[in-house]
Amino acid sequence: MFLSVFEMFKVGIGPSSSHTMGPMMAAARFLDLLRAAPFAAHGVKASLHGSLAFTGVGHATDRATVLGLAGFVPDTYDHTHAEAALEQIRDTCRVAPTGLPELVFDPRTDLVFEFGAALPGHANGMILKATDAQGDVILQETYYSVGGGFVLTEGELAAGKDTDEGAPVPYPFKTATEMLEMARTSGHSIAAMKRANEVSRGGSDTLDKGVARIWQVMNDCIDRGMAHDGILPGGLGVKRRARNIHDQLIAERGMNLAPPHTINDWMSVYAMAVNEENAAGGQVVTAPTNGAAGVVPAVIRYWLDHVPGSSRARIPEFLLTAAAIGGLVKYNASISGAEAGCQAEVGSAAAMAAAGLCAVMGGTPEQVENAAEIALEHHLGMTCDPVKGLVQVPCIERNGLGAIKAVSAASLSLRGDGTHLVPLDACIETMRQTGHDMSEKYKETSLGGLAVNVPNC
User: Fold this and answer.
1) Where are the transmembrane segments (predicted)?
2) What pLDDT sits at residue 255?
3) Which fold has domain 16-158?
């Protein structure tokens, strides 16, 4: 099993990896089918199902689908160009993706929210169709956005999750148990094994440049979030708070006024800055999802700014360790809130961040595994119930608390020798079972929890 660091950490746009980035990527894949088809399509249509329908407007799924069919992709997304394209599409009822003729597409009638039962493969389903001049369907594909920006066709999903067909990697661990055994046998750290796997597929230069870009985008996102204030879009009237909190923390420096637990506010403000940017539709990095995008960068920034002995040169070690843990969670359970609740998003992010922090603070592979387990265990059962379907309440603050838990988990693990009662594999399996048993109304449908108990109009 191999999941690249660039699959766990993708540069994209807010507010949601599964509901915004995923549908945009699905549309891009459908356009590729049309480019390769032996016929010319006249128009396109789309339908959104399950969670993509229930919380699609709040997550900008409709906007992402339209832009995806117009040829936009998350990695190179430009907000100004997107706004101009949307206005033109509304006026002309046409999309004009590169390499294809103009296609008839009226967002008011050709994009349908299906609020009935979800499609059978996953809670986040969508169907894309191409039509001829008479309106008959000449090509159709079903896509599932399975979390973190990952997209599978119906056929790919049915074929199973172990679909990696690349060349063998040096350390192909599928479980934490295998990972620890390979670390003991090889004498390598988790990050070193992950690096060897990455280099075997893409080369060291690609890896180094790509990881540097991941951190640059994460760090820039923190800085933008701490520099802006105002009201977040969506109608809830949620105020951006990161800038004000950051200003207060700066003012308190050196005045001997702040209590020791103020460090928690620093962790929270870094995470909240990211998730406020995400809620505003800004550029973020999935870590492993948009909804949980603040946890990993907040813990890295905490380590760099507040922990003696930290070094930017070790950020790749942090990210590679975190990606290894995230890959185990995704492969053996889920990172999708629509599939397993927020335990799969912020819980997974906290496990990844705890593992990364433990590693760069000198933890052994056993301590790193313990850190990840502690963080994930104490998110088990967490629901995903966004108010009004927006990635704002409780999502923004939840990332702050996830970062705090991650740091606490790493600290606890470093106080021990790596031995502990509950293995990470057992915790991941428990999360999978809990997600399976969880009521659908608590899995990113906004049909339960805070979403129905907080006035949102």
Assistant:
1) none
2) 78
3) 60s Ribosomal Protein L30; Chain: A; (3.30.1330)
